[in-house]
Each structure stands twice: as C-alpha cells, then as structure tokens.
Amino acid sequence: MKSLFVATIFTLSAALTQASFACDIHGKTGIVPDNKLNIPTGIKAMGGINEIQFNKVIDRVGALYTKVVAQLGGTLEFERNWTDGTVNAYAHRDDETGKIWYVSMFGGLARHPQMTEDGFAVVVCHELGHHLGGFPKKKDAMGNIRWASNEGQADYFSTLKCLRNYFAGMDNQAVVAKLKVPAAVTDACKKSFANADEIAVCQRSSMAGLNLGNFFKVLMGTKTDVTFTTPDKAVVNVTYDNHPAAQCRLDTYYQGSLCDKSVNEDVSDTDGNQGTCTENNGDKNGLRPLCWFQPKSLN
User: Fold this and answer.
1) What is the pTM of this model?
2) What's the angle, vertex CA 147, arms to CA 15 and CA 243, rounded to 5?
3) pLDDT score of 15
4) Per-residue 3-state assignment (H helix, E strand, C coil) for 114-183
C-alpha cells in the first residue's frame, strides 16, 4: 500500500513544472506550484506529521509573530485546514482592507511522507515570510511592487529570522545530536557563530532546509539529489520572483542559516541590505544565492 501511494505521488508530480506560477499576491498559488496531490486524513502511517504537531507548530509561530503583525497594522490569521488533503500552503491578505494577513496551512502537506515537524515549521515561516520577509517584493502584471516578498526571500526569511525565533529556548544541541549533520555544515556553522546554541540552531535550521529541499525534489520529480555541497550553479540576470529549483531553495535555506545578522535586526521592505548578509555589508557568508537573487537589485 505504501509503495502504491509513493508511486502515485511520483506520477502526479511529473505533471508539475518549474515554469508554474509562484505564491501570488492573492494567495491562489502556494509554496509549491499547483498540483493535484491529495493526502486525506487516516494516511498518517505512511509518513508526515500528526494533527498535534501540525497545531503545535502553528501555535508557536503565531505566539511569536501575532504582536509583530499587529504593530504593523495587520491581524495575523492562521487557516488550519487539517482535514483538507491539499499538498500546499498559502499566504494572502484580505482583498478589501489588506489588514488581515492570512497563512493557510493544509493537512495534506503535513501528511506528506517527506514532511517533518521542523520542515513544517519552515513552511509556516515561509508563508509568514511573504508578509514579513522584506525586499525583494513580488510585482503584479503591470510591474507594480506589491505587498508580498518573493519566493526566494520568503525562503531566506524562514531560516534567517523566523526559525531562529522558533527554536529559541529549545534544547537545540540535544536535537542536533540526534541528526546526521554533515561535517561541512557543522564547519560552516562554526565559522559563522561562536556560541554553542547558535551553532546548534544553524545546524538544525540547515537540516530543516534539507528536509524541504528533499520534499521539493520528490514533488517536482527532480532526479538529481539536493545536497549542501552541490549548490545550484545558475546565475540570474534579474531577480527571479517565482519558485526556484529544489537545489536553489536548499541553498537559500542554508545561507539564511549561516547569516550571522541578529535575529532582532529587522529586514526592510525597500532596503535589501538591512538585516541580511550582503556583499555591500562586507559579508562573505549567508548571501542570497545567485540562482534566484541578483545583487545589482540592491544598488
């Protein structure tokens, strides 16, 4: 039964392409391109996380950011669609006032065999990142800049800021001790951070990013493995707003984990240097990958 279910996932994922539209400003497309996958309740034994974990992650992110959103004039609203088998997640705002900031999460995504609790936290942080991730922003069909941070920036924000807040106060060293963290990741985290818990958060965030990278790989039917040591070699001429390839997205989560900027240094909607790692700031590590980000946009 399990092999049949996984085979179905691969069959349906073959219909997805990187050319599909990204999470748009109306919340009509999600963290992955639209797909026909549906994982109903009762299939948890095949992998993923359960309803308790689903709600626990959302509760924690909500507790961290509800007041932040309120200070910016919005109301953060989580739509908890546990019984919905949709394998996706969305961010959108109230069309009439723009003051209700929605994060829509689905049980189908949570139940996907590749999903873990930390990976699910990255997804929630990604969707929140469309609201809070800062520059660069998405543009509408007329080229006008809108409210939502683009896909790559939402990924970057998820490990640069959100996941660090999420992991704060946890026994991250104990968690990391149970993970098979590659030596290259450990070495890179030690170069960026001196504090033992900060190193552990860097490692844990990187591994959560790997979990999502593998999720994207499976969902997109990508044949090449995603790894920390094989970064995407693509270089964009202009910043790409839609979904990057699976390896590029892992690269973004990894670099967000390595950036040593304070979690308390906010990003900006207009200044892409603020609160981030950039060459303009004199940084060498933690830079947004060139597979989706063009640094010339900062000038």
Assistant:
1) 0.91
2) 25
3) 37
4) CCCHHHHHHHHHHHHHHHHCCCCEEECCCCCEEEEECHHHHHHHHHHHHHHHHHCCCCHHHHHHCCCCCH
